[in-house]
Design goal:
It contains 5 helices and 5 strands. It is α/β, with parallel strands linked by helices.
Length: 108
Protein backbone atom coordinates (compact mmCIF):
# COMPACT_ATOMS: atom_id res chain seq x y z
CA UNK A 1 0.00 0.00 0.00
CA UNK A 2 1.49 3.29 -1.11
CA UNK A 3 0.36 6.53 0.47
CA UNK A 4 -0.15 9.33 -2.03
CA UNK A 5 -0.57 13.09 -1.98
CA UNK A 6 -1.97 15.26 -4.75
CA UNK A 7 -0.49 18.52 -5.97
CA UNK A 8 -3.09 20.70 -4.25
CA UNK A 9 -2.54 19.06 -0.86
CA UNK A 10 1.23 19.28 -1.21
CA UNK A 11 1.06 22.95 -2.20
CA UNK A 12 -1.21 23.65 0.79
CA UNK A 13 1.20 21.94 3.21
CA UNK A 14 4.19 23.83 1.78
CA UNK A 15 2.28 27.14 1.83
CA UNK A 16 1.44 26.50 5.50
CA UNK A 17 5.17 26.39 6.18
CA UNK A 18 5.41 22.66 6.78
CA UNK A 19 9.00 21.49 6.51
CA UNK A 20 8.63 18.68 3.98
CA UNK A 21 11.45 16.87 2.24
CA UNK A 22 10.78 16.60 -1.50
CA UNK A 23 12.80 13.96 -3.34
CA UNK A 24 13.08 14.10 -7.12
CA UNK A 25 13.96 10.60 -8.36
CA UNK A 26 14.19 11.48 -12.06
CA UNK A 27 17.38 11.40 -14.10
CA UNK A 28 19.76 14.36 -14.07
CA UNK A 29 18.69 15.21 -17.63
CA UNK A 30 15.03 15.36 -16.58
CA UNK A 31 15.81 17.42 -13.48
CA UNK A 32 17.82 19.89 -15.58
CA UNK A 33 14.58 20.77 -17.41
CA UNK A 34 13.03 21.94 -14.14
CA UNK A 35 12.10 20.66 -10.71
CA UNK A 36 9.97 21.54 -7.71
CA UNK A 37 11.95 24.19 -5.78
CA UNK A 38 14.05 22.97 -2.83
CA UNK A 39 13.72 19.31 -3.79
CA UNK A 40 16.56 16.91 -3.12
CA UNK A 41 17.74 14.96 -6.16
CA UNK A 42 18.27 11.24 -5.60
CA UNK A 43 18.03 9.37 -8.92
CA UNK A 44 15.82 6.29 -8.61
CA UNK A 45 18.66 3.86 -9.30
CA UNK A 46 20.60 5.31 -6.35
CA UNK A 47 17.78 5.02 -3.80
CA UNK A 48 19.08 1.71 -2.38
CA UNK A 49 22.48 3.33 -1.79
CA UNK A 50 21.18 6.65 -0.46
CA UNK A 51 18.07 5.61 1.49
CA UNK A 52 19.85 6.54 4.72
CA UNK A 53 19.48 10.21 3.65
CA UNK A 54 15.70 9.86 4.09
CA UNK A 55 13.87 10.29 7.42
CA UNK A 56 12.06 7.33 8.92
CA UNK A 57 10.15 9.46 11.43
CA UNK A 58 8.51 12.14 9.26
CA UNK A 59 6.62 12.46 5.98
CA UNK A 60 8.60 12.96 2.80
CA UNK A 61 7.45 13.13 -0.79
CA UNK A 62 8.89 11.31 -3.77
CA UNK A 63 8.10 12.44 -7.27
CA UNK A 64 9.04 11.72 -10.85
CA UNK A 65 7.59 12.81 -14.19
CA UNK A 66 4.16 11.17 -14.01
CA UNK A 67 4.06 9.47 -10.61
CA UNK A 68 4.69 5.92 -11.87
CA UNK A 69 8.38 5.55 -10.99
CA UNK A 70 7.93 7.31 -7.65
CA UNK A 71 5.01 4.98 -6.84
CA UNK A 72 7.31 1.98 -7.27
CA UNK A 73 10.06 3.75 -5.34
CA UNK A 74 7.63 4.28 -2.44
CA UNK A 75 6.77 0.58 -2.53
CA UNK A 76 10.47 -0.28 -2.34
CA UNK A 77 11.09 2.14 0.53
CA UNK A 78 8.09 0.79 2.45
CA UNK A 79 9.68 -2.67 2.25
CA UNK A 80 12.82 -1.12 3.75
CA UNK A 81 10.90 0.30 6.71
CA UNK A 82 10.21 3.80 5.37
CA UNK A 83 6.47 4.02 5.99
CA UNK A 84 6.31 7.84 5.82
CA UNK A 85 7.05 8.07 2.08
CA UNK A 86 4.31 9.75 0.03
CA UNK A 87 4.01 9.51 -3.73
CA UNK A 88 3.13 12.74 -5.55
CA UNK A 89 0.18 11.55 -7.65
CA UNK A 90 0.64 12.66 -11.27
CA UNK A 91 4.25 13.68 -10.67
CA UNK A 92 5.73 16.96 -11.81
CA UNK A 93 3.35 16.94 -14.79
CA UNK A 94 0.36 17.38 -12.46
CA UNK A 95 2.29 19.89 -10.34
CA UNK A 96 3.07 22.06 -13.39
CA UNK A 97 -0.47 21.66 -14.77
CA UNK A 98 -1.75 23.35 -11.62
CA UNK A 99 0.61 26.26 -12.23
CA UNK A 100 2.80 25.62 -9.19
CA UNK A 101 6.42 26.73 -9.09
CA UNK A 102 9.07 24.99 -11.16
CA UNK A 103 12.68 25.91 -10.57
CA UNK A 104 16.15 24.52 -10.97
CA UNK A 105 18.02 22.51 -8.38
CA UNK A 106 21.54 23.49 -7.43
CA UNK A 107 24.31 21.14 -8.39
CA UNK A 108 22.48 19.60 -11.34
Amino acid sequence: MVNEIDSESLQARLAAGEDLLLVDIRTAAEVAQGAIPNAKHIPMHLLPLRADELPKDQDFILYCRSGARSYHACQYLAQQGYDKALNLRGGIIAWARHGYAIGHLEGI
